[in-house]
Write a structure and sequence with these properties.
Layout: E1 7-15, E2 19-27, E3 37-47, E4 50-58, H1 61-75
Antiparallel strand pairs: 1-2, 2-3, 3-4
Length: about 80
Amino acid sequence: MGNAKPTIEKPIVCENANHLIECVHNQSNRSDGISLAHYATVLWTFRDGKIVEGQHFFADPQAVDSCFTEVAKSTAPS
């Protein structure tokens, strides 16, 4: 992700005492053209003031998987 120069927008964030929900729009901007624009929701769970779990739900999991597979192929040692 460091090479992706991502832009991240959070159009919705809600919370209560034990949970925080973020709806996130991520846009990666890789110089090799392997980029992705997608929406995800993250459910964070807190206990004793600390994050104990984060669950990610992707609007298009196949697109995210394909992008990460392509990045892994392009950065694998020859």
